[in-house]
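Much of what follows relies on a compact textual record of a protein's fold. A record is reproduced here so that you can trace the correspondence yourselves:
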Amino acid sequence: MEWGGIVGYGLFLLIYGGIYAISALGLNVQWGYTGLFNIGVGGFFLVGAYTSAIMTKGPDFSHLGGFGQPFVVGVLAGGVLAAVLALLIGIPTLRLRGDYLAIATIGIAETLRLIVTNEQWLTAGVWGIGGIPKPLFSTFGSAYNAFYAVLVLAVMGLVYFAIERGIRSPWGRVLKAIREDETVAQAVGKDIFRFKLQALVLGAFFMGVAGALFAHFVGYISPEAFEPMNATFLVWVMLIVGGSGNSKGAILGAFIVWVIWSGTEFVAAALPPTLGPRAHALRIILIGLLLMIMLLVRPQGVLGEERQVSKLLRPGDGSRQASAGG
């Protein structure tokens, strides 16, 4: 492979890895920090992608659209609509057992995929939406992928720092308390329903933003892109491999799993065309093996949850306080 091909493939890995990392960070807020079992990640990802595509495209008689809004407006609209969907799901389910949230999220995700498949007036149905605007494409030209990689990584960095700031605050400590024992958190006067709803909505917003970034990079979306294997299962594996309850782990897991997932394309290219489906099966087998190995050898993930220690208990603080008191 020539250097140009290596650089191009590296940018491809950075873009897709970054997009999946944003989704994994959103899932980490829900599951890793709060214990909310969301198995409908693909539904929020789908809403973000289709919303941004419809908002930013020019007039198109094959589906709803023609709003022609800027890229930033489309991405934010995708995140907000995904958050609104999470709000509508969370209000009736978060007061019940966690199983109900899991059932609701996977059911809504599949329902949304059927809607975008069959409602041609809304999403062009199975034909999908093409011609999705690429921001500043005419400006960067052949260097566009490098620009988009920087953009995605910048968004990922903003999401990471926003989450870290929130998790290290009293708000984040309440989320962890709810994850560990809802009864205790409620006993000390915390409104666990409100905190759980906030975590669900915030995580869904990040998933919607990731979906919007995906749509604007590929320029074409169809229902097949949001099947549970690609849009939900992979994100869960990424979080488990990297380390649930650790934002750095969510990012690391996203890149590790995506490198393995996309690396099987080289195997597929080396095989005869008749063996193409077997290469796809190999991809799923490799991810399954990785998940099994991690659960057996290191169930907490590569990094595991980062333990926070109170400033009063850090080494050296006690001696300084004692000397100050004396």
